[in-house]
Amino acid sequence: MGRRAFALASFVALALLLVFVALPVVAIFTHTGPARLIDALGDHSAREALRLSFETSAIAMLVIVGLGTPAAYLLATKSFRGRAAILTLIELPLIIPPAVAGLALLAAFGPNGILGSALDDAGVELVFQTAGVVVALTFVASPFYVRQAVAAFAGVPGSMIEASEQLGARPLRTLVSVAVPVARPGLLAGFSLALGRALGEFGATLMFAGSFPGTTQTAPLAIFAEFNTDFTGALALSAVLIALAGALLLSVKLAAGGRGLGVQG
Amino acid sequence: MRGGVRGLASTLAIGLLIGAVAGCGGSDPQQLRVSAAASLRSAFGNYAAAAFPDGQIQQSFAGSDQLAAQIEQGARPDVYASANTQYPDQLYEKGLLDKPVVFARNRLVLAVPADSDIRSLEDVARPGVSVVIGDPNVPIGSYTREVLGRLPKSESSGILDNVRSQEPDVTSIIGKLTQGAADAGFVYITDVRAAGGAVRAIQLPDSLQPEVAYGIGVLKDAPNPELARRFVQGVEPGGSGVRYLHQAGFLPPG
Questions:
Q1: Given the DSSP bridges, would you call strands B131-134 and B163-167 parallel, antiparallel or unpaired?
Q2: Does the model's ipTM exceed the 0.95 cut?
Q3: Which of A173, B95, B139, B196 is deepest in the core (most CB within 10 A)?
Q4: Which of the residues B6, B11, B82 would you substitute to probe the A interface, choosing the one with the greatest number of A C-beta atoms within 10 Å?
């Protein structure tokens, strides 16, 4: 196969992939129409579900970034025994089916779970609570950020970190003012992937936190509940979710200087 | 040369993708696809295993509303069996289903984990008890609301205040009970039997019982109508599948 034939084959591959991925998304919007979209936003229960989705995703992302950033920095800059095993463990939720993740969370944090009675003694309730949704989202979405953050920090030249330390900067200062700015595109890419995963989470949330309007019924769960009786209503809510998530992704990308979605590592 | 190999690889990959998609889409003329209410899982599973050759019946169990919505969106199983008569009737009126028949009845019970202290509906109305019920769209959810509607106001609002989750089908209500996540749930008596000792049923008085009738029908453009009719006849009175319904705890239609 010659150069031109290869170019053609690659072009066809890209076109097929594009149609395959874009068509369902486009279909949601053509099926809905702008009037129905605005109707959906006016619906109280839909707004409630969207609010819950964004609130729980925001809190989950705070936890993921807060714990994930220093953890990823450690994993990227230090080599120690068991590092590879830890990396694998951290990535595990990526390949666990969401329903299994829900069961696993119940087995760990549910009333009959390993930590069940300890949590109960501490007065912490997760199952059927909004906090439980946050736990499910954090579990499922965290690897998307941490994985990317490890790769991004590993890409920071060691000489820069050494120079910073030789200039007398404390490790925290080096992380905040040297490593994070240099790794920023990769961190933002991981952030947006994790956020997207959190906003779309369904199975683990249903299994672990249940589904109750206003408390645990996030937008994907509301879409699922509505799909059965009101297909257009479910489509409209889906369209709103896609539009808002898309806008979020785009702004993260812009914040990263147009390179935020370039996958590193 | 390298480009040539890669080009070939990507052409192959595209061919494989198309082939894979096409291969999954076809339907075997000898296979029957049954979309059935989640509460029919064990009865229909045993019936299919006993009366049809291995692998001939492909069943998908979910909330009746969800299965009906799939059919409205163009999914084509051969048989649809619902935990109510409303959804089959609606599909019949839309010309998607042959005239449905009622083939079984069921009863609602209060289900609690086997080791629970809960003995009655009053216990469930107490503050702090966590209750799971069906989503309003799924038959078990609307039946449950009928039951609660027949209770004295104070009791029904006490129970409704305790509802922590609205599940998409009976299987997940039972799941929340067996996993110890919830204290009580409203399900069918057949679900408690199917859970095999993990949960216990508290009977509800006749005066509270809703009319729970199961409707079944053959899809208008079923890929395999003959086999579909044979499957449906088997669960009608006198059919070879009735004993499995009976074993599971279903009541006869009449």
A1: parallel
A2: no
A3: B139
A4: B11
